[in-house]
Design goal:
Layout lengths: L1 H31 L5 H6 L5 E4 L2 E4 L13 E4 L2 E4 L5 H4 L19 H4 L9 H15 L5 E3 L12 E3 L2 E3 L7 E3 L6 E2 L3 H8 L15 H4 L39 E7 L18 H5 L23 E5 L15 E5 L7 E2 L3 E3 L2
Parallel strand pairs: 10-13
Antiparallel strand pairs: 1-4, 2-3, 4-14, 5-8, 6-7, 9-14, 10-11, 11-12
């Protein structure tokens, strides 16, 4: 009898040990591989804003396309979210506009929305969200359209069950630089923060250690290097940079305020529409596209300017997941794997 009890005790202990080990293996696998699990909700405790000190940058910074020779850029102190805007936070004020070049709407279920970044939103939608949240929390709006800061009064705004999105047409958006409300980062703010602030300017953050830092097509696809099988992942599952910012190089790419264009020594720190007519832009040959200071040639200007997008995403290759790669998003077009990282100016 004692011998049988001993055997049972040993077998029970072994079973418990195996269960514990397997449980730990699952947690580790969730952290390293696919991350949309309830375990991830414990890690993603909500966005925190990090204070980034101001700086003057003169001349070339490691491999940068914006901090270049003879260009002098002043970046004032600002606050930046340590994570990308989640679907749950976005859907508190906004819905999905479903207009030009529409991608699939997010398919994550309710609890996943609290930990997965928003995507399939347009640049205009981001502007709407920023102002609505600023108004709700008592901050000064960072944007106006035709002089009006309340998005509910903007022309062709869409409303659905008390939530708003871009409707149609080209909006004349003005950046109120000294406002303390939520906004998109400027391109130089984004790169400065992505590098990790002042201490990271001398290095290209992410080189040689991308798996630990970013979600991209090597680690977020169900099938190896098949971007159609890639899926968005939970925020804050990778290693943050020196400022404590997560997912700067992957998961979803991130919109900036600035219009897309070649950067020269004379280019100001914040890039706006240069006032060139739409027809002048359309008439430019394809060989001149990279020199065009504002990319309104897209779609004959019908959908507005193209704005800078930074960072890789869950379906991009390694060469796009860094602090220097630049691409664009037409402001009325929904970016299928493009999201939002909020910043605020410091008063």
């Amino acid at each position: 009898m004692k011998r049988n009890r001993l055997v049972c005790t040993v077998l029970t202990s072994v079973a418990l040990c195996m269960t514990s080990c397997l449980s730990n293996m699952v947690v580790i696998d969730r952290f390293v591989g696919k991350s949309i699990t309830q375990e991830a909700a414990r890690v993603a405790e909500g966005a925190k804003f990090v204070s980034v000190p101001g700086i003057r940058i003169n001349g070339q910074v490691a491999d940068s396309q914006v901090f270049i020779t003879n260009r002098k850029v002043e970046i004032k102190p600002f606050l930046i979210s340590d994570q990308e805007l989640t679907q749950a936070d976005y859907e508190k004020y906004c819905t999905y506009s479903r207009t030009h070049n529409s991608k699939s709407m997010p398919t994550e279920i309710d609890w996943e929305k609290t930990i997965c970044p928003a995507y399939s939103v347009s640049w205009y939608d981001a502007i709407v969200y920023c102002n609505l949240r600023s108004m709700d929390e008592g901050f000064a709006c960072a944007y106006t359209v035709d002089g009006e800061s309340d998005p509910r009064k903007w022309k062709n705004i869409k409303e659905e069950d008390g939530k708003y999105s871009y409707g149609s047409g080209v909006w004349n958006v003005t950046f109120v630089e000294h406002a303390n409300g939520y906004r998109l980062p400027t391109e130089v703010e984004w790169e400065y923060a992505a590098r990790g602030g002042r201490e990271g300017l001398s290095e290209n953050y992410g080189q040689g250690n991308l798996d630990a830092l970013a979600w991209y097509w090597e680690n977020s696809c169900d099938k190896p290097k098949d971007y159609l099988s890639c899926k968005v992942q939970a925020v804050k599952q990778k290693v943050p940079n020196k400022l404590g910012l997560y997912d700067m190089l992957g998961n979803v790419s991130e919109m900036c305020w600035d219009v897309m264009g070649e950067v020269y020594a004379s280019t100001p720190a914040v890039r706006y529409n240069d006032g060139t007519s739409v027809l002048e832009k359309i008439d430019q040959p394809l060989s001149k596209l990279s020199d065009n200071p504002v990319a309104r040639f897209f779609n004959g200007g019908k959908y507005g300017d193209a704005h800078v997008v930074r960072g890789g995403c869950y379906r991009t290759e390694e060469n796009m997941c860094n602090t220097t790669f630049r691409r664009e998003l037409i402001q009325a077009s929904e970016g299928g794997a493009i999201g939002i990282r909020l910043v605020r100016s410091i008063e």
